[in-house]
Task: inverse folding
């Protein structure tokens, strides 16, 4: 794990973020997730510079959304320099239910094209590969 992932994990592990349970380095389909909260169907990814305009990330996020998950992405420096703001965004996302039904639970189709925006900084592209880099789901 990177320094940013270690720092984030210190705050997410052992139900430390409002009593919510996160898992780290969790396999899901063909991917390994940095952090996931299965109850909220929320994935949190910590990204370094190698993720700039990554087509792989766009495909990965689209697949995860198709499985009924929301994806929050933060730059490593955001996590290291603005930890409290990052945690606040994550807590808000966990505390608010996903507006998208879970296709796995037979709750209908997932809305396509939903985008995310970062309250911290623009990151170049959205979770679906366009617009802003996601750090917080618009609801």
Result:
């Amino acid at each position: 794990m990177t320094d940013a992932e270690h720092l984030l994990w210190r705050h997410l592990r052992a139900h430390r973020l409002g009593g919510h349970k996160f898992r780290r380095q969790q396999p899901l389909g063909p991917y390994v997730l940095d952090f996931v909260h299965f109850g909220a169907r929320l994935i949190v990814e910590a990204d370094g510079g190698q993720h700039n305009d990554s087509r792989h990330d766009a495909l990965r996020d689209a697949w995860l959304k198709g499985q009924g998950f929301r994806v929050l992405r933060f730059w490593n420096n955001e996590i290291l320099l603005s930890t409290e703001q990052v945690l606040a965004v994550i807590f808000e996302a966990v505390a608010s239910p996903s507006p998208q039904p879970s296709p796995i639970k037979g709750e209908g189709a997932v809305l396509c094209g939903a985008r995310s925006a970062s309250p911290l900084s623009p990151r170049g592209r959205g979770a679906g590969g366009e617009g802003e880099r996601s750090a917080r789901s618009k609801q």
Remarks:
- The beta strands are 23-28, 31-37, 42-47, 70-75.
